[in-house]
Amino acid sequence: MEQQEDTRMFISGNEAAAEAAICAGCRFYAGYPITPQNELTAYMADQLPLRGGTFVQAESELAAINMLYGASAAGARCMTSSSSPGISLKQEGISYLAGSELPAVIINVQRGGPGLGNIAPSQGDYFQATRGGGHGEYRTIVLAPAGVQEFGDLTYLAFDLADRWRIPVLVLSDGVIGQMKEPVRSAHYPPPQPPDKPWALTGEPGRPRNLVKSFHGDVDDMAEFHLKLLARYDAIRREEVRYEVAGPPDADVLIVAYGTSARIAREVVERPPRDMPFSVAIFRPITLWPFPTEALAEWAARVRAALVVEMSAGQLVEDVRLAVEGRCPVHLLPVLGGRLPEAGKVVEKLKSLHHTLK
After folding, report:
1. Amino acid 263: pLDDT
2. I need a surface site. Which of 86, 90, 255, 267 has the fewest CB within 10 A?
3. Residues 307 and 224 occupy one common structural domain
């Protein structure tokens, strides 16, 4: 698929992520159908074999994530995608990838839950994504796009981060961003430059024999491995924090939101009603892990209150409270059931805070 530098494609977020993955050098994809991410799987099925890669329609989500284990161990850039209950089925495999220091990209186009839930957009998988999700102590880098172009851009970035840190990277989208369509620049991605992987199991003659494993039978060996991972996670916290702030630097109230919620809440910041009694800014975490704790703490010391807007009962708000550490009051506007936040409801919630501001 040859494209000119200024070419724009009017495609869905799911398709933008798939195109970006191929541009990033993804050469193996395994997945299983589930709404609302099926456009991504369909795009990979159509395009990846034409562009030098391998697409596998796995028999289950469990099979798909374990196929990534094998592909990554062999040195390939690889990806899978699913939606909430499907990602739950992948958690054991993600833990094994983390325990074996294998890079991989996993996309979650969130839907309602728990259980089968519905196919409406949600942000109810925040805890699962940012706390590891599977068994054992591990982390995954978590990237949260707020639009179609960014869904592609962060997916492209995810492959570089996965290889740099030898870690699974999760791109946490939702049903709105996955299925909405916007003009996207895809040809602006530079040619991929995957690093050398001397640890990979290539079978190439003359190379030292490698062993990829997550088993550490000796407790001292297990503890030493944990310390190695913890040092890596500390380095990621120092070097890979990403966030965006919009609005006046002397704002009275700070909205904190990610993904679709941030996209909607930003309308209130950019076009506030005339009768808004105070100024408002928005803080959008782009990396949900590592969370931009220090940057948010600095803002919390300047504003009079923070309002968290999220499409869940309250998960992001816990990381916000941990970052704020009492520097300002933290309020929550939860949106449940697959409904979307409404700018008018955000304005109502903000106005209701006026009498509480000091």
Report:
1. 96
2. 267
3. no
CATH code of the domain containing 83: 3.40.50.970
> Which alpha helices (H) appear in the chain, and where do they start and end?
13-23, 38-47, 61-73, 84-99, 126-130, 148-165, 175-179, 219-239, 259-270, 293-300, 316-324, 343-352
Same domain, 218 and 235: yes
**Span 216-254, pLDDT tens digits:** 999 999 999 999 999 999 999 999 999 999 999 999 999
| ∠ Cα 37 317 353 (to 5°) | 120
Looking at the structure, do residues 276 and 131 belong to the same domain, yes or no?
A: no
- Total of domains in the chain: 2
Residue 58 covered by a domain:
yes
Residue 157's domain spans which residues?
8-193+212-239
pTM of the model: 0.96
Question: Both 221 and 276 in a single domain?
Answer: no
Give tens-digit pLDDT for 61-94: 999 999 999 999 999 999 999 999 999 999 999 9
122 and 174 Cβ atoms separated by less than 8 Å: yes
Distance CA 202, CA 204 (A): 5
Half-sphere exposure of 60 (CA within 13 A, CB side): 7
User: Cα 268 to chain center, whole Å?
Assistant: 24
Cis ω on the peptide bond leading into residue 290 (within 30° of 0)? yes
What φ, ψ does residue 95 adopt, rounded to 5°? -60, -40
CB–CB of 121/311 below 8 Å?
yes
| Range 49-70 burial, b when 16+ CB lie within 10 A, else e | eeeebebbebeebbbbbbbbbe
